[in-house]
Amino acid sequence: IFRNAFVLLMLTAVLNVAMWLWIVGKGIACISGCYAVQDLLEEIEASPKSGNESESHGSPESQDVVKHVIVIPNYKEDESMLDETLQSLQEAKGSEHFFVMLAMEAREVEARGKALRLEEKHANSFARLLTAFHPSNLEETHIDGSSNPEVPGKASNLKYAVAEACKAISIDSLISADSAVLTVADADVFFHPMYFEHVGRDFSKLREAGDDQHKWTLWQAPQLPWRNFYECPVVSRTWGYISSLWEFGGVN
Fold this sequence. Notes:
Layout: H1 2-46, H2 51-56, E1 67-73, H3 79-89, E2 99-105, H4 111-122, E3 128-134, E4 139-141, E5 147-149, H5 154-170, E6 180-184, H6 195-209, H7 234-249
């Protein structure tokens, strides 16, 4: 009995120390990440040219300029929240060149009216603001030739909206597929005003390297769940602190 109890105490002590080392390590990494982002923002803001201008060596109308295509899938989301999301998006640097697609569901009764009001309010803030209405009667065709009714959900909605965005881009003389960066965002996401500028610079550097890395590289920003932070239960807020340490610690 003593031996088992001793082993149990040693195991819990080791796990406790490991947990606190992990927490402290992530906390230090998070602080370091904050300083790294601050230095990066100061560098971007001090640059005499925006990423869109410097990366293309031409005017914003050139097809070589990096253009951001932003798809926002949503279903029965509050209109005021979508309004705030678009308002935040237009505060981003270079937002006048953004191609924004609202990915809605045709089966949502209020979708078309909601989309019309949002387009009327925000259309002039972006290069394009369009809406895709995902039909509910599509078929999913598989590699073996068989097909099944498409499962309704966020994934199928996004798939349809991205396809519609590609069609719109193909007939838009101002956007080249080789210069387009696709961003998928939830309906309640606020981006930092310099996020797209930074991604555009990275994309341009990869494209200039000439090995096609820009065609398959993915960017994932740290997710900080603070938009409705104080409206959430205390357990969710506690996890918000932990996940923020984890997410921002990865920036380091």
